TrEMBL record:
This is Uncharacterized protein. It comes from the Bacteria. InterPro entries: P-loop_NTPase.
Length: 159
C-alpha cells in the first residue's frame, strides 16, 4: 500500500536558497523540517572546522536521521529535509529512503547562477557571522566542483 506522505528535498549550489525554500515548503505542506545544519550543530558544535570535517560528521548522523525521517513518513507525516541533494549519490540516498517506506518524494532543484549564489553567501555572512569561516567564495568554488545537476534518468520527481 502506498504511503500518503511526501519527502521534500533540495538540490542547488551553496547559496542557492535551499534552506530558505525548505522553510517555505515545510510551512506550505504542514511538514516537519529536518535541518542538517541544526543536527550537526547540536551533535558536533565545535568539531566541524573544515569541509572534510563536514563530510565526516554529516555521514555520521545520516543513519540516525534516516531512521527518524522514515518513522515520521511511515506515520503519514510529510517531511522536508534541508540536507543537500547535490550529487547523484546524495539523491540516490533520498530515493532509497523513500522506497523503503513507500512514500512519494519531490526534489526541488534551485537552478541559480554562481553570481546569485555568491551574492546570497555574502549576505549570509552579514546576517549570520558565525557562518563566515565557511561562507566564502573559495569554499563556494571548492564545493561547487562536486555539484551534479539532476538528470531525467535518476527517476526523480523534480520541481
Amino acid at each position: 500500500m502506498k504511503n500518503q506522505s511526501t519527502l521534500f528535498f533540495f538540490c542547488g549550489k551553496m547559496g542557492a536558497g535551499k534552506s530558505t525554500k525548505a522553510k517555505v515548503i515545510a510551512a506550505d505542506n504542514h511538514a516537519v523540517l529536518v535541518s542538517e545544519d541544526e543536527w550537526l550543530a547540536a551533535h558536533y558544535p565545535t568539531q566541524i572546522q573544515t569541509f572534510e570535517d563536514y563530510i565526516k560528521y554529516s555521514n555520521l548522523i545520516k543513519p540516525f536521521v534516516k531512521k527518524h525521517v522514515q518513522s515520521l513518513l511511515s506515520l503519514g507525516v510529510n517531511v522536508v529535509m534541508d540536507f543537500p541533494a547535490n550529487t547523484v549519490k546524495q539523491r540516490a540516498w533520498f530515493v532509497s529512503l523513500c522506497r523503503e517506506v513507500n512514500c512519494s518524494h519531490e526534489l526541488w532543484f534551485l537552478d541559480v547562477t554562481d553570481e546569485q549564489c555568491l551574492s546570497h553567501i555574502a549576505q549570509r555572512r552579514i546576517e549570520s557571522p558565525e557562518r563566515a569561516p565557511f561562507d566564502t567564495e573559495s569554499v563556494f568554488h571548492h564545493v561547487t566542483q562536486y555539484f551534479e545537476p539532476p538528470t531525467a534518468d535518476e527517476g526523480l520527481t523534480i520541481k
